[in-house]
């Protein structure tokens, strides 16, 4: 079936994820109890609230201080949290530019404002790119107050872009997200290796 549109996930697909480095960084600033959340791959509470936009970066930092009972500066907390992400390879940005000549490209990510700003400033812009020029439209969970794998977030993408799921490839590394996408008629590709996404 012809692919006219491609929707990319961000973490684990375009940029890498390094939980061990993030855990070490939280421990380094004295936030071992938050590091434990990362080690357990917890997606509820603090992390979920930031990904769904229920709390902003300041509130995230306040909650880390409450959990740890330590007066850790905002910049150290944000730094440690951003250590989860590893840079987007230059070849991927070049490939996006190439694909964009023949496909409509979109980004759909469960992410928070801290990670998004870090990706924009240190991964995209550092290489002379911009996420908003790489993709026709960017869909971020913290801005939409919706999160994968809910059908609602996929419906929002369809409604705002006018795409047809059958003509659209969705690339993600999480089985649950792909299951919802397939149920809604999207073509899907799961990858566990962010160096082999295309």
Give me some keywords for this one.
single chain; 198 residues; alpha/beta; 7 strands; 48% helix
What does this entry look like structurally?
This protein has 11 helices and 7 strands. It is α/β, with parallel strands linked by helices and 198 residues long. Helix 1 (19-28) runs antiparallel to helix 2 (32-39) and helix 1 runs antiparallel to helix 5. It starts with a strand and ends in an 8-residue tail after the last strand. The model has no long low-confidence stretch (mean pLDDT 92).
Secondary structure topology:
Elements: E1 5-8, E2 16-17, H1 19-28, H2 32-39, H3 45-51, H4 57-68, H5 74-82, E3 85-86, H6 90-99, E4 104-109, H7 113-124, H8 131-134, E5 137-140, H9 141-144, H10 151-161, E6 168-172, H11 175-183, E7 187-190
Parallel strand pairs: 1-4, 1-6, 4-5, 6-7
Antiparallel strand pairs: 2-3
Helix pairs in contact: 1-2, 1-5
CATH level 1 name of the largest domain = Alpha Beta
CATH architecture assignment name of the largest domain = 3-Layer(aba) Sandwich
Distance between the termini: 16 Å
Strand content: 5-15%
Mean pLDDT over all positions: 92
Q: Count of helical segments?
A: 11
Please give a quick description of this structure.
The chain is of the alpha/beta class and 198 residues long. The chain has helices at residues 19-28, 32-39, 45-51, 57-68, 74-82, 90-99, 113-124, 131-134, 141-144, 151-161, 175-183, and strands spanning 5-8, 16-17, 85-86, 104-109, 137-140, 168-172, 187-190.
